[in-house]
Amino acid sequence: MVNDDGTNRADSSAASPTSAITGRGRLQAGTIDSSTGIIDVPTFVWGRPTSDSDTTQRSGWYLDFPSTGERQVSGISLAGSTLIFNSLTPNANTTTSVCGAGGGSGREYRLDVDTGDGASRVSTVGLLGESMAMRITSATTSSTTDSTGRRHRTVTTQSIAQGTMGLATSSTVTHDEIAGRLSWRQIHNYQALKER
C-alpha cells in the first residue's frame, strides 16, 4: 500500500517531497511467518521520506510472498479497513499440469490498509481466483439514532474463496461504520422554538 499523489517527480527531487515514490527503500517492509500465517509490519509514520535512510516516515508498506513463484493476479476486496485478496502458487512439479485441479495452490491474505498487519492461510481449494466478500445481513446491527439522525452500524463480512477444487469460506471480518443522517441536525421541537 503506497501513498501516491499521482505526480511523476521522484521523491528525492528538491522541488517537492510529495511526489512519485522512487522505490521499496521508501516503504516499510513487512514479514510473513509461513508457519502461522501472521503478517507483521513494524509501526511507522505515514509521510514522504526524501531518502531511503530517512526512517522517521515511510510512504507505505510492502511484503514479499513466502512461496517461490507465488503471485497475486486477481482483484482485491475491501471490508471496512481490511484488504482481502488471494495469491496463486503454481505447482513446481513439471509432471503435473498447472491448469489441472492439482496444479498448484495459493494463500488468502487479510491485511489492514493502514498498518499492513494481518494474516494469511494456505488454500484448501487449489489455485485461487478472486475472493468474494459478502455482507452477512443477519449479523448487521445498528445503534439507536441520536439527535442528529446518526447511527453506528456494525457490519460483518465473510469472504468466499473459489479455487480449482471448489469453494471455501473463511473467518468473518467485523467493522463499524456511520449510517443515517450525516449532514444536518434534526430539531424535534421546531414549532415550539419558532414561536418563542
From TrEMBL:
Residues 1-27 are annotated as: Disordered. Residues 9-21 have a biased composition (Polar residues). It comes from the Bacteria. This is Uncharacterized protein. It comes from Variovorax defluvii.
